[in-house]
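[Automated response] Your request has been received and processed.

Submitted sequence:
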Amino acid sequence: MKRVLFLVFMCSTLCASSQTYSNSFFMNVHGEGKLFFVKEMKMAHAGGAKARKLRYDYTHIDARDNASITATCYTKGMTNIDSLFVLLPDGRKFGYPIEKIYNEKKRFTWKNRFRAYIDSSLWFEMYKFEEPFTIVVGSKNNDDILFKDSQSTWKRRQKKMLFIQSLVEINKQ
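Generated structure:
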């Protein structure tokens, strides 16, 4: 009887976690493989030039060796963004050029939309640490902008991303 109750508890826990995260991403068959799209998330400003927030999403196709980050950086002034860096909690730093999508002024805020392609191995590694990683948006003016999750946000986001990444691994061709 205890085993049956334990199995029921485990199944309900797994089902509840997948239901909780199912609205955070979707998976679809793509011409190159399975496409995983992780819906937009927000990261708080953590230092550097004046900025408000960073909103970003991920797209990963299992047949490729990279993941794309499409982001919008909200700044108080025009910023000429040209690079994205990922700083891992162990001190390693990875830099990537960006593809500018658009810059747009809305009242008192500039929206800087861009895309960067990061290595899949880094995408998987970013969520394995107990501490949050830092995203640094670089500009030609040397006005770097830092973004980082709070510890409480990180714990929730890390669980969600590890779940999604486990699905990517399970569904590899």
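Summary generated for your ticket: The chain is about 25% helix and 50% strand. The first strand starts at residue 25 and ends at 30.
If you did not submit this request, please reply to this message.
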